[in-house]
C-alpha cells in the first residue's frame, strides 16, 4: 500500500472503536447493508454459522444518503472515506491489469458497485467450540483486498490451510468466484477463513470487495460467452445474509 493508503486504513481501524454507541445507532441501515451492523447479520456463505464480529459497511454510491448524520463528522468516517478512495484505485488497477492480460478491450469499472467492510471481532464474541471466527468461504466477487490488524486469516490451497502474515504496509488480494467465472475458469477461487485464537484476542480487519458495474452486460474473457454477472453477484452477496445488490 502507498503511505497515504496505509495512513487511511490504519486510522480507520483505530478510530472505528472510538465511535460512541449512540452515534453508531444513528448510522445503522441494514435494509441496504450499510453503516454499523451488529453481529448476527452475516454468516459464512450458504451456512448458518454466524461471523463472530460486528461490522461496518461503506458504499461509495450511498455516500449522499449519509448527509445529516453525526457520524460523518468523526475521524472514523473520514478515514473510511479515504480508505475507500485509496483501495478502490488499487483494486481498479488490478482489475484493469487482469482485463489487459486477457487482451480484453472492454474495460470494467468497479467503484460504484463495490464497498468497504470493517469487521470487529470482539473478545467477548469468541466461542470455545468454534474453530473459526468466520468459517471457510469465498467472497463471490471479482477480488477482495484484506487488511487485518493481527494474524488469524487463513487461505486454503488444495484444501491445505495456510496462515496469512502481512507486514504493516501490505494488503492481501484474494480472488472470488465471479472472477473464476469471467475468466472461463482460468483464475481459481480463493477460499479463506478467520481462525478462532487460542487466547482471548480482539481483532479487526478492513476489507474492500470489488464488484463490477452491474448496469452493463458481460461476456467471459476468453470464450466470449454471455454471462449474467448481475444475477451471479447478487445471489452470492445474499448468500451471506446481505440485502440484494440489484
Ligand atoms: Fe471473505
TrEMBL record:
Residues 125-210 form the Isopenicillin N synthase-like Fe(2+) 2OG dioxygenase domain. InterPro entries: IPNS-like_FE2OG_OXY, IPNS-like_sf. This is 2OG-Fe(II) oxygenase. It comes from Stenomitos frigidus ULC18. Pathway: Antibiotic biosynthesis.
Amino acid at each position: 500500500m502507498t503511505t497515504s493508503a496505509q495512513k487511511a486504513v490504519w486510522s480507520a481501524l483505530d478510530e472505528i472503536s472510538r465511535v460512541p454507541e449512540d452515534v453508531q445507532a444513528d448510522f445503522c441501515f441494514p435494509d441496504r447493508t450499510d453503516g454499523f451492523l451488529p453481529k448476527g447479520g452475516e454468516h459464512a456463505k450458504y451456512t448458518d454459522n454466524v461471523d463472530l464480529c460486528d461490522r461496518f459497511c461503506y458504499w461509495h454510491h450511498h455516500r449522499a444518503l449519509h448527509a445529516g448524520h453525526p457520524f460523518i463528522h468523526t475521524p472514523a468516517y473520514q478515514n473510511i472515506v479515504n480508505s475507500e478512495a485509496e483501495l478502490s484505485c488499487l483494486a481498479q488497477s488490478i482489475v484493469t491489469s487482469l482485463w489487459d492480460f486477457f487482451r480484453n478491450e472492454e474495460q470494467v469499472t468497479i467503484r460504484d458497485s463495490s464497498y468497504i467492510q470493517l469487521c470487529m471481532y470482539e473478545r467477548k464474541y469468541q466461542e470455545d467450540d468454534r474453530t473459526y471466527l468466520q468459517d471457510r468461504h469465498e467472497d463471490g466477487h471479482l477480488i477482495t483486498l484484506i487488511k487485518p490488524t493481527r494474524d488469524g486469516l487463513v487461505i486454503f490451497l488444495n484444501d491445505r490451510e495456510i496462515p496469512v502474515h502481512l507486514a504493516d504496509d501490505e494488503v492481501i488480494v484474494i480472488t472470488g468466484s465471479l472472477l473464476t467465472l469471467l475468466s472461463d475458469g482460468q483464475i481459481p477461487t480463493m477460499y479463506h477463513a478467520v481462525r478462532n485464537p487460542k487466547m482471548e484476542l480482539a481483532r479487526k480487519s478492513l476489507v474492500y470487495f470489488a464488484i463490477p458495474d452491474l448496469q452493463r452486460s458481460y461476456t467471459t474473457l476468453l470464450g466470449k460467452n454471455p454471462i449474467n454477472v448481475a444475477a451471479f453477484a447478487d445471489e452470492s452477496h445474499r448468500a451471506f445474509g446481505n440485502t440484494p445488490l440489484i
